[in-house]
Predict the structure of DUF3576 domain-containing protein.
Amino acid sequence: MKTVTATRLILAACLTAGLAACGGNADAPAVRKVEDSTIWDLFANRTDPNATVSVNKYLWNASLEVLNFLPIQSVDPFTGVIVTGYGTPPGGGRSYRATVKISDPAMDARSLKLALQGPGGSAVEPGTVRAVEDAIMTRARQMRIRDRGL
């Protein structure tokens, strides 16, 4: 019984010390106030459609279109990452899995990073990766031209 009480006292002392360490320092410089915002601010009407998310919408949509034969495992438009499961391309015999990272709002080849894996995590020829990247870039350019033509 004394062991349980001593353990509780030690635990309470550690928690109190940890909580006290979180206190502010009166001598510390003032922290800049961040504007209040909500999740709905992401969808506000802005003049630049790429202002809220730092991912190029044409590269994003083109990646989803070109890789539509692969099952989507996860997508995160805020970080620009698309992860797919294994799938076989139309007319192909080997299955692939892809991870796409779009790292910049500019529609540039440097903004697009593609990693392909074969069955069991085997390496894919660089020419195949390059061909898929080219297909995504071509489709993104077509989408941009179509939008500007309206």
DSSP finds three helices and four strands in the chain. Strands lie at 72-76, 81-84, 97-102, 112-117. The two ends are 79 Å apart (CA to CA).
